[in-house]
Recover the amino acids of this structure.
């Protein structure tokens, strides 16, 4: 096992990466190795589909599988080694299909099909033991002795950025929004990785290409969410429990949440959101269910305590799962790409058993004191008051915008983001998205220029909304995004954040502050490139960073 | 007051204080740490850990729960051990087996009862609705519960045979012990509608979900119960892990749960079942045509031909456990997980 894809990866003075029997995320070595093998087979699919697409032939089923397969390998998504054996066998079937598709298209075009090697020719073993023996061929660092850390680190950046793109695109896909350009970009990236590139230049270009593809993926997801559930509106959400039967839905998947709301309609069960599903309350079609009762708990890393105390079943959609503890292991369900050995999985959006569990479990014995927060300041809400915003900026009422967004995590350094938010001056606005906001979103920041000082724009999946707002404001002021009185303070944890960072870089956004640590797969030389070309900065002292942002803007 | 440090199998460190006058199980519970245990009288071995350092004194215990060899290797029973200095212990279970709240105590009603072969009974309980727990039967497949006959002082541990469920059903397979207090109740008085008190779930005899090895279950008599629970759970989850079951009884007329095994096999096609009868009976019309011998003997034969090292899950009387552990060691099995019966 070797993995350094997320922020929590093991670090010591002279090395970084999880390489023992179990990663910091709780993933065991076998599962990590099988994930490497799965991605290697997927590279083979990409090699064939990339060439087939050039000849006008596509395979929607294989493309969708690529999104799903990559999503399963994100941090805190799927921990089931047995499932990965199944996924690998399925990938091999699809790879054979992609090969046939390409060869047929080539012959029809009068070309002689290429004989591909590497991942395209890789034959996965039939059983787990055989697959584990093959894992070395697929390991991210297999060429490090020959090529050095910089090339391998940049390959990792591309691979992990690709995972983020696939996760966003999968979310959009399940809601009916697909983009050929995204599939083309995924296939291109896989083909490049399969070629085992050895030069920095093409890899850096690919990273930025993935950033652009990710913008498309986020746009597709935004269209999927708003198209299915309406445009988010500022909404007051109860964050304390109500007496009665209860289901908790965590993760990011609005479609699963909708299915659960439908399954529980008129059954006397209250549905609570957890973690990144908090913004669901702002979508009209979801808010219309009166039993979408509120939000419970905080960010993902607190789930073991919060789930143990929740008196009903819990459904983990998409990502953010950590090891289920005995106190709630029998009443937690996974869905979609998520999995844990021995935990019940909902594979077909049939949540009947979850409803049975909710009715069989006690629910909340009494009402807690009512507390509420406001969410739903997506692009439509903010741009709906654009005139007010522009006037407030021009009059000096609003001096600056701080976009404090991204993931939360358990690392102590993440206090920075709460410290930063609390230290922002009263004449500034805080835009936020992602689960990092749980560190400060129940604080009353007051108002400025007739607007709440804290505007919650949604999930980490809603980064598109923030980019649209920035772009539109820049247009309104007649400047570029980098000239706006706007600073981006990004906390990252996993691979969707890596993809968002690539998008920011691809769009030319400079001076992003990134923390709580820089990715372990970025070598000092690669960090220098990011600093030099894009002005990326590590987070430092919150007050000093605020002063620096304000002085740069002044 | 001395400091006790317990290191779990998966590397978690648990610490609590203990007075010399209290056993270590009770000391942990005073700190709201509920360690795996069952009889609390030194008879079952459920609370056995390894003593790494420090001064420990043991009360009297049964050699079935802690053999001389195990004691010589540092084994102690938490329910019998007293600290006379700071102590370090190593646990054979993961941190996930440790509870941090008291074991639930709930009322249930007998909804089905009947014989299970010639020497055992099957009872099914239905949890009553409870304000704290609802009606759900939440446990980890393989765990046990302690059944108490209200106002009698009679309380015995039995493994659950079904999988966790939302109907609140608990199934037990209970060997009838001649003269046993709970056995006498079952044989002479128990009937549908009776109320019982269930203390549980308890125990760490559960699937090692992290292991990639095939799972081989060895069951002697009603030791089949936890194997049924785990296999039913695997069937519900469509778990693809290779699985075998060696189920043994002494005589043909003691066989039971064969229909349940067929149902599981239908849902878990990779499961291979070997039924073992140690002393096949003579009447020609009931002559046993399956494996004649103990499940430990059947296990030994299969291990000799195994291509992978399986994990062994064994439950039954102490003699079977010992035999299986010997066979597993000689035959090159992976991990061996055991749940011993104690007569009651």
């Amino acid at each position: 096992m070797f993995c350094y894809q997320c922020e929590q990866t093991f670090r010591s003075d002279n090395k970084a990466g999880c390489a023992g029997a179990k990663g910091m995320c709780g993933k065991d070595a076998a599962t990590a190795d099988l994930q490497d093998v799965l991605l290697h087979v997927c590279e083979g699919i990409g090699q064939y589909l990339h060439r087939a697409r050039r000849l006008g032939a596509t395979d929607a089923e294989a493309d969708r599988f690529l999104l799903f397969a990559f999503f399963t390998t994100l941090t805190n998504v799927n921990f089931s080694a047995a499932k990965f054996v199944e996924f690998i066998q399925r990938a091999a079937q699809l790879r054979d299909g992609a090969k046939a598709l390409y060869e047929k298209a080539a012959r029809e075009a009068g070309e002689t099909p290429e004989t591909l090697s590497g991942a395209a020719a890789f034959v996965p073993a039939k059983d787990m033991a055989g697959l584990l023996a093959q894992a070395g061929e697929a390991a991210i660092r297999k060429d490090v002795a020959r090529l050095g850390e910089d090339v391998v680190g940049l390959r990792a950046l591309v691979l992990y950025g690709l995972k983020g793109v696939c996760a966003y695109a999968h979310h959009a896909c399940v809601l009916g929004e697909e983009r050929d350009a995204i599939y083309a970009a995924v296939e291109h990236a896989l083909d490049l990785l399969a070629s085992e590139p050895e030069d920095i230049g093409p890899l850096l270009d690919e990273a930025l290409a993935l950033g652009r593809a990710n913008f498309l993926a986020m746009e597709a997801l935004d269209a999927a969410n708003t198209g299915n559930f309406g445009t988010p509106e500022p909404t007051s959400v109860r964050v304390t429990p109500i007496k009665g039967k209860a289901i908790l839905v965590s993760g990011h998947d609005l479609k699963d949440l909708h299915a659960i709301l439908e399954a529980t309609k008129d059954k006397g069960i209250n549905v609570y959101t957890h973690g990144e599903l908090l913004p669901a309350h702002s979508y009209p079609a979801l808010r219309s269910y009166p039993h979408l009762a509120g939000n419970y708990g905080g960010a993902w890393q607190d789930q073991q305590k919060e789930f143990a105390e929740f008196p009903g079943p819990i459904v983990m959609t998409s990502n953010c799962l950590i090891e289920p503890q005995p106190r709630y292991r029998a009443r937690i369900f996974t869905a979609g790409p998520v999995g844990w050995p021995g935990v019940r999985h909902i594979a077909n959006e049939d949540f009947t058993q979850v409803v049975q569990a909710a009715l069989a479990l006690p629910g909340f014995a009494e009402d807690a004191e009512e507390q509420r927060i406001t969410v739903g300041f997506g692009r439509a809400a903010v741009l709906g008051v654009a005139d007010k915003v522009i006037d407030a900026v021009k009059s000096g009422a609003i001096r600056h915008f701080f976009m404090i967004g991204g993931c939360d995590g358990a690392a102590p350094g993440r206090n920075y983001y709460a410290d930063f938010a609390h230290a922002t001056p009263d004449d500034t606005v805080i835009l936020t998205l992602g689960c990092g906001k749980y560190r400060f979103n129940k604080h009353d920041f007051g108002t400025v220029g007739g607007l709440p000082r804290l505007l919650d724009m949604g999930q980490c999946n809603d980064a598109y909304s923030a980019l649209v707002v920035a772009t539109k404001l820049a247009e309104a002021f007649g400047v570029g995004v980098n000239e706006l009185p706007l600073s981006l303070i990004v906390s990252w944890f996993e691979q969707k954040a890596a993809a968002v960072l690539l998008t920011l870089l691809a769009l030319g956004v400079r001076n992003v502050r990134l923390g709580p640590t820089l990715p372990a797969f970025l070598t000092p030389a690669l960090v220098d490139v990011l600093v030099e070309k894009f002005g990326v900065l590590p987070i430092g002292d919150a007050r000093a960073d605020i002063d620096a942002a304000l002085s740069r803007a002044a | 007051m001395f400091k006790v440090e317990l290191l779990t199998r998966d590397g978690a460190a648990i610490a609590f204080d203990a007075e010399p006058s209290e056993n270590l199980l009770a000391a942990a519970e005073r700190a709201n740490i509920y360690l795996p245990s069952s009889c609390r009288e030194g008879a079952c071995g459920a609370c056995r850990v390894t003593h790494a350092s420090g001064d420990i004194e043991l009360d009297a215990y049964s050699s079935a729960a802690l053999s001389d060899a195990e004691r010589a290797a540092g084994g102690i029973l938490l329910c019998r051990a007293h600290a006379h200095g700071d102590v370090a212990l190593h646990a054979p279970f993961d941190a996930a087996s440790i509870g941090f709240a008291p074991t639930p105590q709930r009322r249930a009603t007998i909804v089905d009862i009947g014989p299970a072969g010639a020497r055992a009974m099957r009872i099914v309980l239905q949890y009553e609705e409870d304000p704290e727990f609802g009606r759900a039967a939440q446990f980890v497949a393989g765990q046990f519960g302690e059944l108490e006959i209200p106002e009698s002082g009679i309380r015995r541990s039995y493994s659950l045979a079904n999988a966790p469920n939302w109907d609140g059903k608990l199934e037990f397979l209970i060997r009838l012990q001649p003269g046993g207090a709970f056995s006498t109740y079952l044989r002479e008085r128990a009937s549908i509608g009776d109320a019982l008190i269930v203390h549980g779930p308890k125990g760490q005899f559960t699937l090692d979900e992290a292991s990639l090895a095939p799972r081989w279950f060895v069951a002697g008599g009603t030791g089949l119960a936890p194997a049924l629970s785990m296999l039913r759970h695997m069937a519900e989850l469509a778990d693809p892990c290779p699985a075998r079951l060696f189920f043994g009884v002494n005589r043909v007329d003691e066989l039971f749960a064969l229909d349940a095994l067929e149902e599981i096999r239908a849902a878990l096609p990779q499961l291979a079942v070997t039924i073992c009868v140690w002393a096949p009976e003579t009447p020609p019309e009931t002559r046993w045509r399956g494996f004649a011998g103990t499940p430990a003997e059947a296990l030994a034969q299969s291990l000799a031909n195994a291509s992978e090292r399986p994990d062994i899950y064994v439950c039954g009387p102490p003699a079977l456990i010992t035999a299986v552990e010997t066979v597993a060691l000689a035959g090159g099995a992976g991990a061996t997980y055991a749940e011993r019966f104690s007569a009651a």
